[in-house]
Amino acid sequence: MNVIAQAPSLSDFGHDPWWLVLGKIVFAFVVALLGTLLGVWFERRVVGRMAVRPGPNQLGPFGLLQTLADGLKMAFKEDILPKSADKVIYFFAPAISVICAVTALSVIPFGPMVSIFGHQTPLQVTDVPVAVLVVLALSSMAVYGIVLAGWASGSTYPLLGGLRSAAQLISYEVALGLSIVAVFMLAGTMSTSEIVAAQGSTTELTLFGADIQTPGWYALLLFPSFIVFFISIVGETNRPPFDLPEAESELVAGFMTEYSSLKFALIMLSEYVAMVTMSAFTVTLFLGGWHAPWPITIWSGANSGWWPMLWFFGKVILLVFVFVWLRGTLPRLRYDQLMRFGWKVLIPISLVWIVILAGLRTIDDWDTQSRLYAIGIPAGIVLLAALFWPSRKAAPKPTLAEQVDNRPPGSFPLPPLDLQVPPSPRTRRMVAEREPANAPAGQDSEEV
Amino acid sequence: MNTSTLLAASGAVSGGEAVTFWILAPLALAGAIGMVVARNAVHSALWLVLTMLSLGVFYVLQAGPFIGMVQIIVYTGAIMMLFLFVLMLVGREASDSLIEVLRGQRIAAIGLGLGFAGLLGSGVYRATQGSTPLGLEQANAGGNVEGIARLLFTDYIFAFELTAALLITATIGGMILAHVERRKEDKRDQVATMKARFAPGNYPGPKPGPGVFATSSSVATPARLPDGRLSDRSTPDILPVRELTAEETTLKGTEK
């Protein structure tokens, strides 16, 4: 298969006629809108199945038109502007979110070079040498939409949601950026189309005498980065279990509490478009982009023409399913847990992994023996340190008798610990005070 | 990027670049002025965001896509967001007051600012007028990002590392100043908290609410316990318990 010839490089961009550019932009926009329409339906259906109920199934086949109906309904509802809202910012905040989410799709490669009406053109709106940074910049600008929506609403719950979202998104952006660094190191480029092309080459692995073609996907080569990246984008898109800015059990609906009608629809739209965009971004960076997965690569035409777009969207849908799966499975994190996880787990793992990867890249062209030394000595030191790391001896658990003795004075009386029922003191008293049986009748004693 | 690099290197301004510049330059200027003029702190920050975004696009126009994107990610995305975070904590209603403390300082500031901008602008204009940009093509020869990386890790490695050390020191200093760390053994877990709550001498239930009487709905009014005494626990610690006069404490017309 001629993968390399099909993969576009940076020089293939910028030669399209205006109608082709317009067509690609419209296509990316339609992908975003359709992704929202189908994404909401998909999420409700899947979560429904996970909760053992059918989900929306009335409008259209399989309830497919439910989202459309909901969207139309939202457009015709009354648009409420809170009295204490900051009007201009309240109006613009949802638009910022939507614009940032949709624009990020412009640097996502949907497929390789194809021929459209005789023009050889890559299936991607545009590509720049810093395309990955463009997506990062847009996702960091999208935070403004949420934060400003929360602030401009002029009430408490949205403000709390906005504050939470500001801190959360900044924290998870750091982990996100660090996990992408590993991809840059391996691919040697920041352009999305070239990152996809770099994942096209397969490596031969000889396992048990059989040659296995492993894909050069960075999800396999850079597994820790992939995991950190995916967790970070779940945090970055405010999806459960990181949906603290809109935690409906604590903050009503978080930053969008005061929004209604079309503005609310825009916020919903931006959220689902961001989910699709970030899934597409993950596919591009880690899952080989439009490259066909393993069993399909047996067919030599799998990576040419329009077919790759199918594999691409298949992978995107798979990732969207994972997003929904997470929502259906995991409970929401507490805020301090979220912050601790971001700063004390994700970021250190990313940093250590980058250092290890840089080391591995450095010794790549050494001879075998020095490479063994370079890997073996640090690994041995780490192992020894782990082995001899002083562990704190747990304090012996006090026995029951000690615990009872150590109770402060005036504590609540305890029942006997040997489970022997003591003779009631009252019985003894009653026996002592009982009048003799031969007492004269009619002389009633008082009740004891 | 290639076309823009070539154009910038030759000193010519392409049509697209000129159009973008003349659209964004007034916006950047409006952002700067708006930042100074806006009375609400958050509006002020947003005007500054506009200026920073325009600057980012200018960098991209000048064949520096990496620095442009970093400008947007770091300055607009992270630093201004932190500013906003703090401003939002301050509260929505916080606005500048219009009362002039120093007489005439506003006019003086405007005059001095305009004068300084004029001096700086004319100086830069005079200095760069007629000069042709050189070496952009060589600087961007192996790619813009690679060029910056090579410089950072060769010629400017010490400056780079020193800046990093300075920033880390500042961050850690800030954390130490602001962070109150309790020792591990001082931290109470859930079990210890509950034990302390039910320990003898501590009343485990919620505190009684303040008393509400016909004459007062103040939180400073202490509640009455079932035996008629007043409870100190019902009023906030910062409020003094209200001294009731003898007249107030006697029962009203019921003991005859």
UniProtKB/TrEMBL annotation, chain A:
Region described as Disordered: 399-448
Catalytic reactions of this protein: a quinone + NADH + 5 H(+)(in) = a quinol + NAD(+) + 4 H(+)(out)
Record keywords: Cell membrane, Membrane, NAD, Quinone, Translocase, Transmembrane, Transmembrane helix, Ubiquinone
Annotated InterPro entries: NADH_UbQ_OxRdtase_su1/FPO, NADH_UbQ_OxRdtase_su1_CS
EC number(s) on file: 7.1.1.-
Keyword Kinase among UniProt keywords: no
Protein origin, superkingdom: Bacteria
Localization, UniProt: Cell membrane; Membrane
Membrane topology classification: Multi-pass membrane protein
Transmembrane feature ranges: 18-42, 88-110, 130-153, 174-197, 217-235, 264-286, 306-326, 338-360, 372-389
Gene Ontology BP, a term: aerobic respiration
Chief location of this protein within or outside the cell: membrane
Keyword Translocase: yes
Gene Ontology CC entries for this record: plasma membrane
Single Gene Ontology MF annotation: NADH dehydrogenase activity
Subunit and partners: NDH-1 is composed of 14 different subunits. Subunits NuoA, H, J, K, L, M, N constitute the membrane sector of the complex.
Family designation: Belongs to the complex I subunit 1 family.
Function as written in the Swiss-Prot or TrEMBL entry: NDH-1 shuttles electrons from NADH, via FMN and iron-sulfur (Fe-S) centers, to quinones in the respiratory chain. The immediate electron acceptor for the enzyme in this species is believed to be ubiquinone. Couples the redox reaction to proton translocation (for every two electrons transferred, four hydrogen ions are translocated across the cytoplasmic membrane), and thus conserves the redox energy in a proton gradient. This subunit may bind ubiquinone.
Protein name (record): NADH-quinone oxidoreductase subunit H
Gene that specifies this protein: nuoH_2
